[in-house]
Queue: 2 jobs
Job 1
Amino acid sequence: MASLMIILQLAGAVALLLFGLNLVRDGVTEGFGIRLRMALGIGTRTGPGAFLAGLAATLGLQSSTATALLTASFVDRGMIRARMAQIVLLGANVGTALTAWIVSAGVAAVTPGLLLAGYALSKQRKPVWTGTGRALIGVGLMLLSLSLLDHAAMPLRTSPLLAAFLPMLDQAWPVALLMSAALAFACSSSLAAVLLVLSLGLPAGLTVVLVLGANLGGAVVPVMLTAGLGANARRVAVGNLVIRALGCLAALPFAGQIGGLLQQAPLPWTGLAVEAHLAFNLAVALAIWPFAGMIARILERFVATEEDQAEPAPRWLDEAALQTPILALTGASREVLAIGDTVERMLAQTRLAFQQSDPAPLAEVAELEQRVDRRQQEVKTYLSRLGSQATEDERRRAITILDYVINLEHVGDIIDKGLSPEVRKKIGLGLRFSEPGFAELDRMFVMTQENLRMAQTVFMTRDLDMARRLMELKVDIRNLERQSAQRHLFRLREGLAASRDTSSLHLDILRDLKRINAHVASVAHPILDEDGLLFESRLRGR
């Protein structure tokens, strides 16, 4: 009975820790999600920038798995190069180790203050304050869970059974490593596994081995979650797993010596498990960084790309479903989502050509635009044949689907007939933007891609809060476009040659990205209008 109570207390403490982690991640995503995604999308042009972007994102999201999934999705969309993605994940792994160090060094006395401040902020209306409040509550619960872990593990430290079992486990390090990896995989968090090891007070060598296992198990989760994505995304997750596995193999024979050295090192004592976690990830980052490009090239050979690149036929426009309007509308919605994914691919390829001054990605843009035109016409024809028994609500939903697919087709036209020729002109004439000008345009590209993804979510979920956020981002884009145009004019007045040579091109790209965002945000109009939150005119009343 006593053993069962100890297991329940440990399990409850781990559950509270994971719940706190989720609260922090959800809060930071709510308050700063767009900024974090932009940091990943923009800050990865250089190795140090990529490392810091991964570290910062993981400190915010409290999850290297979340950062790995974001990075993999960006690679899949052509927003991050493969080499930089591996460096991002090196930073993410160091970030999760720093999180463990910060949490374990936290003073338990501040927990009530964090919970109180978090509760007060979570009652605010602005997403930034609400998200910050939820994140503070999450941190407070994480600190509380550490106290519970320490209390629950206290009987284990003096348990005769554990005293008899530890020597056997200490003599079978590979088994211990796999057990710890399985625990981290079950928790979907290497951080939770490391903090659990911290609470047990184990011998130095065994502690290091268990920490190695936690790092290995934490890298398995992204591999499984990216299995359904493209080959580029899968390579990122597989590469991270291979890197951690190699690090574990290299460190495992020397776990005893590593534990002894860390215990003797003049470091602030946060516990051997936490210090080993941080030391391992720092060592792996330093060792692997110079070879990130080579690893990316090797993965290209071993993780195959999809062989069939032919245009798929419409999957969801089932003729038999036309007599059942709800099924037909569901199928049409899924087909429109696929069209949105194609438009997003067009935008990603255009940005890739813009970044690398390489016209090759633009060839795919023209092909994809023709596909978008054909598919949106098929959706319109399909919905025009909807059964006469459709209700008024179903007819309104059909009109909403038609509005969105027409806007997606307009976006495709803007990319193919506006952005693509502008980028081709930049490349053909060998034009170079000023450094601030290039950064401003690249930021607009990233925000536009993220807004398109949010529009896809709003279209399917019809979530009111997300629709409102999408409209707010439309205003942000409009302000950003105006500010960038003004800064460009200032640079012209200063006589900057690069700004003079690219003046019309800079303003044309800004205008087209702004137009794309206007079409994308239109998906929120019917949702906000139903709630009476949309004004018919932006003119002020007299």
Note: The chain has a mean pLDDT of 81.
Job 2
Amino acid sequence: MRAEPSLPHHRVPPGSLAELTRGEGGPATVDLLTAAERSRRLLLLRMLDDATDLGPAWDLLSAAQRRAPAVVDELLMYPQTGMWLATALRRLRASTAEKDEPPLPVVLGHVRALAAAAALRAELDFTVEVPVRQGRVPLPTLGCAELPSAEPWTTATVRAEAGRAVVETPGHRVAVPLPPDSAGPGWHPVRRLAVGPAERRLEVALDDVDPYRTYPQPTEPRPLPEEAAAQWRQMLERAWRVLLRDQPETAAAMRRGVFSLSPTPARERFRPRSVSSGDAFGGIEASEPDDAVQLAVTLVHEFQHTKLGGLLHLTPLVTRGADSGTELWYAPWRDDPRPLEGLLQGIYAFVGITRFWRAHRRAAGARTATAHFEFALWRAHVNTAMEQIHRHPRLTPLGITLLDTLRDRCAEWLAEPVPEDQLVAARLCVADHVARWRAHHLRPAPAAVDEAVRAWLAGESGPPGALAAEPEVVPDPSARWLDCLAMLVRHRLSGADDGRHSEEPEKAAARVTGALAGDALLAAGDAVAARQAYVAHLAVEPGRAGTWAGLGGALAASDTHPIAAQLLSHHPERARAVHEALLRVTGTPPDPVHLATWLGSPPSEAH
């Protein structure tokens, strides 16, 4: 096998760079990224051979390449191959293994499984020893043999001769069907899904057995039942129809850059989980979706990450600096603070999602209220994220161009009309999410909080000026479900789109993990009752950060106590910190609205 040089920045055609900086990228641009990724994979494979001497596995791969080069290319570009290469090189550099990771020989031995798969597909006769992982032998792109084993990590032999293939251990044997795309005793094939009309067909592997199908940590094979696999096929067919109708250009590019879909169990409604990795170009891990539109959004989301990951393998968008890894930012799509690199990834992904909802809300048969809300929500969230880092000193010239281009596009979207009901709901959710994030992750200086406590107890007219200083970002690991309000709005709008009446607030809150009665009331439009519910909850659990943010939203929506509403909407961390300190000092909690009004008043002249 021969390694090829990667494609340097100056050889990326200007047209492709222009497409990618717009958050787009047609088939030709995706082909360029794929070619660069192929070169990168070959270099990584050579690095691994230099470090470990792949020996017979390298020889078998080379023989397969001579017989069937397209087969080896496909295996090389399989997302799971890239993930394995990155994992193996990381393990070689690491002094110790992470908890529950397989032994290093099992990780490195995966190259023999890769070689066996290449040789089987190239119709070679061969014998090779491969790892057994907790009773299963995965062969990349083909499937997985299941063999009884008392040991979690051992080895098996793969033999192929005269058109017959087996995987065997002493006393056990599994025949590998040839071609191996059908099930057999002890054999679970990797299913191939082909959806859409012939000229616009998407072909992907539904991979439930490759250990490197989950990102960033490997997961042992978990074959899907036939019924579940059929459900995925049907959902993908519907999602692909949505994309062909709403975003045909994106769909055309996806056909060249999405290679595998790794299914995971369903999650809470409206809270899907999906993951991709720069090391697994073309791979998507996704939870079972609620419906076809949600899966279409997931495909768009992760394909954006795929394109940006490919671009980052060619040229940096961010330089390293003294604050690398320590400077953290608000990401409206996350519960936790994010570094600059992570925020940029999210911006790129959610520009794609915003574009999807913009097109979908205009499509025939779209669930109009939900689509309008999602478009209004994500355009505002993306704009908030971009404004934080606009012209950041660590952005490279190309990074600046990319962010400026996306920012201009978002400005156009912000000017587009959205029906008032959905616009108001989106603005409420945007303000609520950032307030919850601040309440969780920002900490005013302890000395300023102590000074505020003394001023309150002394009866001064306002807080000390020191409390207005920039707070410190202190990641709060307890931060969860900051999207509760948006979740509740989605439940309400989905009912409206389907012609159903909204649920009672108590029932709605019970259906959304992490939601309170106040959240459900606020989402339903009853701001007065929401305020009462939040105050009642603070009396029981005053340290719950999201309740302070929710109270601010309820006060603003009910147009009462404007000073408290302003303080709690923009600086809930001050109210939470001072309230906790007062409770600690006096044993008696102050009235939350009274305290927030005082904190929002002009600083006392005594300070």
Note: The longest strand covers residues 153-161.
